[in-house]
Structures are given as C-alpha cells and as structure tokens.
Specification:
Strand content: 5-15%
Number of strands: 2
Helix content: 55-70%
Shape: globular
Radius of gyration: 19 Å
Length: 261
C-alpha cells in the first residue's frame, strides 16, 4: 500500500503516475539494501530472489488509498499497462536483512532523500518544465542503478552502474569522461570518501566498462560493487541537498555546477 493523492475518478490515466511512485518506493528499498542490509547466505538459498512462483509476479491490480475528508478509502485499480514494466519494478532480486547496529546519519538521510526527489520528478512529469530537468536525470540514473544491482552478469552490472554515474556527472558530448567523472565525484564527496578505496573502486568500474564497450573484452577488473553502490548513494544525497543550485535550463549545466567545487 501507499498513499496516492491523485483522484481515482480517471483511474487509468493515473496508472503511469502510480508506476512512477512505485519506482521511487523501490529506490528506497534498494538504498536500504545497499546501505543497511547484510548477507545471509543460508536464507538466500530459499529466497524468492533466486526461486520464484510466477503467480507472485502476476500483478492484476493496484491497491491504493485515497482520502475523502477525514476518511480513507482503499481503491482496487485494474492494471492496464505493459506487464514487462511492472515485472522490472516488482522483481527486485534483493534480500533485506537489516543490520541492528546504529544507522549512520547520512545513510538515513540518503534513503529519505528519495521522497524529496520524487516530488521534483513528479513536477517534471506534469509540467515538462526544463527547470525540473535534473530530477528527470536523477530518476533515469536511479533506474540504471537498480538494473546494475539486479543484473546477474558482471558485464551488465558494470555497464549499468557506469550509466548511472555518467547521467549524474556529465553533460552531452563531453570528452575525457573517465577523468571528469572521477574529478567531479572527488570534488563533491571529498572528506566523505577516500581516494585509496572508494575512488579507486569507482575507477576500476569505469576501466572495466571501457574494456567491455570499446575493446569487446569480458569483465576482468576487480570491482567492489558494494562500495561503488555506497558511493553512488552518497552522490545522490549530495545532489538532493544542492539541487536548488543546479540550473537545468542552461546549456552544460552539470559542468557549470561541478566547476564550483
């Protein structure tokens, strides 16, 4: 269940918005997985991430809650949408076994930032105003972030997480992408990540991507995906905190933004 404020009168027109809301809710689950979850090798053997009854993914209706005055009403809305898109969001391929140790403040803020980012993205969907363009970039990047985590083949993990970072760091037609990506991540996250570990892991992911795409070679570089994903979450949090200073109506606005740091 999730609360959805749009009128259910024209319910089929709302389905696309409901799916976008669902997508952002799943982003929060992926952030929890990356930041707070620990591995459970025994439990994972019986998890639906590995074995699944197809009926659990045979989604026919949405259950949403709408408010009329002081009362809440549950709406059962038939799904008239592409099942492939529903499957991509619903089949998350993650296990959540949340750690009991104390939560770092930035981790909690990173998870919460997804709600704020959704509000901006919803404004973009409704208005198509360029000033909300950065929210569209972030939503697109989060899609590739999820695909990387879900991927089985290492090559797919590498390529998708690279696209996720590039979408947040580079303008169109930029050259020296690898250098700029590393420089920009370090510029805005210095003091929160280390060059020796975190930046090196990201550099390894970029190098592996280049070998796969440009040379047709199989993934061969040692990439610590868990660490790269955490760096990604830090970058999302930073952008959320500073998005008011990003003018998406300007050409090459990402270059302008990162040049301030």
């Amino acid at each position: 269940f999730f609360h959805f404020k749009f009128s259910q009168v024209e319910r089929y027109d709302n389905v696309a918005f409901i799916l976008e809301k669902m997508s952002f809710i799943t982003n929060k689950l992926y952030f929890l997985f990356v930041l707070r979850s620990e591995k459970d090798r025994v439990g994972s053997l019986f998890s639906t991430t590995n074995t699944n009854n197809w009926e659990t993914l045979d989604i026919k209706h949405f259950l949403t809650i709408s408010r009329t005055g002081a009362n809440n009403h549950i709406n059962c809305i038939p799904v008239h949408y592409k099942y492939s898109l529903l499957y991509e969001d619903m089949h998350m391929k993650i296990d959540l076994k949340v750690k009991k140790k104390s939560v770092y403040k930035w981790e909690a803020r990173a998870v919460s930032s997804i709600d704020t980012l959704y509000e901006g993205y919803r404004n973009y969907l409704i208005t198509k105003d360029k000033k909300y363009g950065m929210y569209y970039r972030i939503a697109s990047s989060l899609n590739y972030f999820r695909r990387s985590i879900k991927a089985i083949r290492k090559e797919d993990k590498v390529i998708n997480i690279n696209i996720a970072f590039e979408t947040l760091l580079l303008d169109k037609h930029e050259t020296q992408k690898r250098t700029k990506m590393l420089q920009r991540v370090w510029a805005v996250l210095k003091g929160k990540i280390t060059k020796k570990t975190n930046l090196t892991n990201l550099d390894n992911a970029i190098e592996d991507r280049n070998l796969i795409i440009h040379n047709g070679l199989p993934a061969s570089v040692n990439v610590d995906f868990a660490d790269v994903y955490r760096t990604y979450c830090r970058l999302i949090l930073f952008l959320n905190d500073n998005i008011a200073t990003i003018d998406a109506t300007q050409p090459n606005y990402l270059t302008q933004f990162y040049s301030r740091y």
